[in-house]
Design brief:
The complex is a heterodimer.
Chain A lengths: L3 E4 L2 E4 L5 E7 L5 E7 L5 E8 L5 E2 L10 E5 L2 E6 L8 E9 L7 E4 L3 E5 L1
Parallel strand pairs in A: 2-11
Antiparallel strand pairs in A: 1-3, 3-8, 4-5, 4-9, 5-6, 7-8, 9-10, 9-11
Chain B lengths: L2 E5 L2 E5 L4 E8 L5 E7 L5 E7 L5 E3 L5 E5 L4 E6 L8 E8 L3 E3 L3 E6 L1
Parallel strand pairs in B: 2-11
Antiparallel strand pairs in B: 1-3, 3-8, 4-5, 4-9, 6-7, 7-8, 9-10, 9-11
């Protein structure tokens, strides 16, 4: 399966600033996803990032707050803008890989733990 | 819309005891179902997946799950818990996008 590297693994930021998270994959993939995991919560999909097109955002997430880049088939970035303490979460990058019997599988990076003071 | 519900946010078992983590799904079409595990300070790792090929699915680390359409369930089991099984477990259904349950934290007592 694909190997995903996320940077930074963790960071502490001041409110009002921005943080950009990088996601590097060791193989070319079409579909990349960004998830948020708030403390003690499950994972919520932020957006789907396809190379060559604008990211598709889920309800409750907007491009101004979470701009995403997808310059090629192995890399993506997620920026969390104008940080507030409510943005303190783990942000996970994932990629879709072809699976057996038509069930594609998502592989996840280790996550980027953000704390906003 | 597809969804999954995990019963019990926290499960505690003794080492060597049976592990049973419950997941019920809602889907208008035959679902693809998954169990993921998240160890502390790590990302998610796929344990197993159901794709309609077989109702009993075997995964990694001795885990298995049985798909029961009549009960709309996909419970995760392991015959004998090990200390290293302590983690957060997520059930998920693929419905255009991967939708996760709320998670169940498994604790294993020595």
């Amino acid at each position: 399966s694909a190997v995903i590297s996320q940077k930074p693994s963790r960071d502490i930021c001041q409110r009002g600033t921005s943080l950009t998270i990088q996601c590097q994959v060791d193989s070319q993939v079409t579909m990349m996803f960004w998830y948020r995991q708030q403390p003690g919560q499950s994972l919520t999909l932020i957006a789907t990032a396809n190379q060559g097109s604008e990211a598709t955002y889920e309800s409750g997430f907007v491009i101004d707050k979470f701009p995403i880049s997808r310059p090629n088939l192995t890399f993506s970035t997620l920026t969390v803008s104008n940080l507030s303490p409510e943005d303190s979460s783990i942000y996970l990058c994932s990629v879709e890989e072809d699976g057996t019997a038509g069930a594609n599988v998502l592989t996840f990076g280790a996550g980027s733990r953000l704390t906003v003071l | 819309a597809q969804s999954v519900t995990q019963l019990g946010s926290h499960v505690s078992v003794s080492e060597g005891a049976l592990v049973l983590l419950r997941c019920n799904y809602s889907s208008s079409v035959p679902p693809y179902l998954f169990w993921y595990v998240q160890y502390p300070n790590q990302g998610l790792q796929l344990l197993l997946k159901y794709t309609s090929a077989a109702t009993l699915v075997k995964g990694i680390n001795g885990f298995e799950a049985e798909f029961k359409k009549s009960e709309t369930s996909f419970h995760l089991t392991k015959p004998s818990a090990h200390m290293s099984d302590a983690a957060e477990y997520f059930c998920a259904v693929m419905g255009g996008k991967l939708i996760f349950g709320q998670g169940t934290e498994l604790s294993v007592k020595p």
